[in-house]
Amino acid sequence: MILTNISALFIYTAFGKWFFPHTLAVITLVVLAIGIYFSRKRNYKHWIKIHLSSFIFSYYMLIGGGINEAFSRIKPLQPYFYSNAQIVGLTHFVAMVLFTVLILYYLVVKNLKRL
């Protein structure tokens, strides 16, 4: 994830300048740094919750980028992407709900106090 996001900062072929996905790469790097920091700082009471939430969120960012790439590069999906169709946003919404449920599962249902 770290290498992917760092390499994303050097891709300028789409518009030749800083673009919104570059900002998402920086946000993902910050979230990864938080997750790594708390995995090493195990004396903090809720370190595992922060660590897992950070990595699940960073994985959501990866999947979100994959959704954008699928809609922008796969020929049958391109009309939806370039016409700003609601299906793109709906696909992101479904992914966001799934990852939110995953985070809640680990924070609430699994009750990570045991770890």
Overview of this structure, please?
By secondary structure, this protein is mainly alpha-helical. The protein has helices at residues 2-8, 20-40, 47-73, 78-82, 86-109. α1 (2-8) runs antiparallel to α2 (20-40), α2 (20-40) runs antiparallel to α3 (47-73) and α3 (47-73) runs antiparallel to α5. The longest helix has 27 residues, at 47-73. It is flat. 12% of the residues are buried. The mean pLDDT is 85.
List the SSEs and their pairings:
Elements: H1 2-8, H2 20-40, H3 47-73, H4 78-82, H5 86-109
Key phrases:
mainly alpha
- Overall geometry: flat
Main β sheet profile: none
**Which spans of ≥5 residues are poorly predicted at pLDDT below 50?**
none
> Taking all residues together, what is the mean pLDDT?
85
What portion of residues belong to β-strands?
under 5%
Structural class: mainly alpha
Cα end-to-end separation: 25 Å
Order of helices and strands: HHHHH
What is the total tally of β strands?
0
Number of helices: 5
Number of structurally distinct domains: 1
Oligomer: single chain
Helix share bin: over 70%
Rg over C-alpha atoms, rounded to the nearest angstrom: 17 Å
